[in-house]
Write a structure and sequence with these properties.
This protein is of the alpha/beta class. It has one domain: 3-Layer(aba) Sandwich (Rossmann fold). 40% of the residues lie in helices and 21% in strands. The chain contains eleven helices and twelve strands. The strands form four sheets. A five-stranded parallel β-sheet has the order 7-6-8-11-12, with helices on both faces. Strands 1-4-5 form a three-stranded antiparallel β-sheet, with no helix packed on it.
Length: 334
């Protein structure tokens, strides 16, 4: 019995090095997580939320990215990024999106929603953008705003190619949230205890939720051994691109239908250089929704905070505002 146990241990001890060598030969390497650093004074500019995962904490903050890019951000009591310019409240334009819309990396006055506000004092642009959001959170925000009695004349959905993986909450995005975000700041983990992240699947019409505690974990040794990284990657069933597209198309349709049923004019802003997927185009054309193409180049160092961060800088937000301005003037019958 002892001899059999000893032989089994020897086989296991030999098998792992062989598996590790084999994994490296075929091209695998230990996982290298893309960590980032973000700090804020005061802390907790983002807080956990049981509906959208994250939300803005009201207050004034100085936020520093990668110990290099600093910006000042003001969050209103409503939980949105506050514009410096003032507009009339009787005609609100709600703008939904992620960190690109929020203005991650630029001061309040430099965000494209504030630049639009400066040109349209007769309107009130409300910036609902929050870092990490996808289309699924935008729908929840719009419904919540309507539930609170805030009926905008227009609802602008700012779309980026990073949103489909967020809408489906893919394993790669789960890892970016749980591992990457946790490492960005030492206080993240304790502040995210009650967070629940929404997502959609192709098999359910209802929004699903993933609790922060169970959203993702790396196997022990994944960032040391190629074999463990390969095994976890292979066993994790990733959502394919076609499925993500289907989910996002359904969310587009839901956003548009909700707007129309509440007499709100929906507007789609295509932020990236790539054209809309055929599925998206079909929905938008059928509903006759106005689409404003930006064609933003996130590799352009003159328009982004590269090499530290690829988010639009002040010049990038000015470019985005100018493109939206051309479309919105026609939309508002000016």
């Amino acid at each position: 019995m002892k001899k059999r146990l000893r032989n089994s241990i020897i086989i296991l001890l030999l098998a792992f090095p062989c598996a590790e060598i084999a994994a490296r030969i075929v091209g695998w390497a230990p996982l290298v997580n893309e960590d980032f650093s973000v700090s804020a004074t005061p802390n907790h500019w983002l807080i956990s939320d049981s509906i959208c995962g994250l939300k803005l904490n009201p207050g004034k903050y100085e936020i520093t990215l990668e110990n290099a890019i600093s910006f000042k951000a003001t969050h209103s009591e409503r939980g949105v990024r506050k514009n410096v310019a003032i507009g009339e409240k009787r005609r609100e334009v709600h703008v939904f999106g992620c960190s690109f819309t929020y203005g991650y990396g630029v001061n309040d006055a430099e965000v494209f929603t504030n630049l639009l506000q400066e040109k349209h004092g007769e309107l009130s642009f409300i910036n609902f953008g929050v870092p990490g959001y996808g289309t699924v959170q935008s729908i929840l925000q719009l419904k919540d705003a309507i539930g609170d009695g805030s009926f905008p004349t227009h609802a602008v959905l700012v779309y980026s190619e990073v949103h489909p993986e967020r809408n489906a909450l893919t394993n790669s995005y789960r890892r970016a949230l749980k591992i990457g975000y946790s490492r960005s700041n030492s206080e993240v983990e304790s502040s995210m205890e009650n967070a629940r992240f929404p997502f959609k699947t192709v098999s359910s019409s209802e929004i699903q939720y993933a609790d922060w505690a169970a959203i993702y974990s790396n196997w022990n040794g994944r960032e040391t051994f190629a074999f463990i990284h390969a095994l976890q990657s292979v066993l994790e069933k990733e959502i394919d691109k076609e499925e993500m597209t289907t989910i996002t198309a359904d969310l587009f349709a839901e956003f548009i239908e909700f707007c129309i049923s509440n007499r709100i004019v929906p507007v789609l802003v295509n932020l990236d250089e790539a054209e809309f997927h055929t599925r998206y185009k079909t929905i938008l054309e059928r509903s006759r929704v106005k689409v404003i193409d930006i064609g933003f180049d996130f590799t352009d160092k003159d328009l982004t905070n590269l090499p530290y961060d690829s988010h639009p800088n002040a010049a990038g937000h000015a470019m985005i505002a100018s493109k939206i301005e051309k479309g919105i003037r026609m939309l508002l019958n000016e």
